[in-house]
Write a structure and sequence with these properties.
It contains 2 helices and no strands.
Length: about 60
């Protein structure tokens, strides 16, 4: 029987809490959201069209 290690917060590596999983606290949860909103994280893919280029095609 293998025991898995307790989950750790992906930002600060402290033990994760059930209330804020997978984070340890509301602070780390909010910091992660701000990273997404501030474009600190990115998902690779083709470049998005600029809104101005869409208007030129009409």
């Amino acid at each position: 029987m293998s025991m898995s290690a307790p989950a750790k917060c992906p930002l600060c590596r402290k033990p994760a809490s059930d209330a804020h999983a997978p984070f340890c606290s509301a602070g780390c949860q909010d910091r992660d959201l701000l990273n997404w909103l501030g474009e600190a994280y990115a998902v690779s893919g083709p470049p998005a069209d600029e809104p101005e280029s869409l208007l030129d095609k009409r």
